[in-house]
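Trying the structure run again after the queue cleared.
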Amino acid sequence: MDADTRARMIEQYEQGYAAVEDALAGATEAELDSRPAPQEWTAREIVHHLGDSEMTSAIRLRRLLAEESPTIAGYDQEEFARRLRYDWPLEGSLLAFRGARESTVPLLRALSDEDWRRAGTHTESGPYSVETWLQIYVAHGQDHAEQIRRARASA
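Done. Tokens:
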């Protein structure tokens, strides 16, 4: 991946929080808790997932950069949603999502070419580099913003 591609991806990554914030604008409690289909998440659950996932992703990136060949553990997002009871107010999870992004963007912009090549092993998907990390998380916010819109529309 060249530097221009990375820069565009970092910009998209940075905009993920704003996309989610926009998707939530004016949401009612009924819209936050509407389930579009039996196995799909509500907008509220999506926000809590984002808080947990983004904190996890921020730590994954830091481990890739600070440790030699770290093992990056996978997790069951459905089990997180069930066991962590994603039904409470969403402000804390929004802050966690925003904080993870705001603290990670400057780090990404400061990485050297050598940093971008650092890698470890993901327990579920195998080889896992800093570039792989960016490819996974670049559109995470935007993808879930669209999912929030669909969930709200089902109310």
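The beta strands are 71-72, 119-122, 126-129. Worth checking whether this holds up in the mutant runs.
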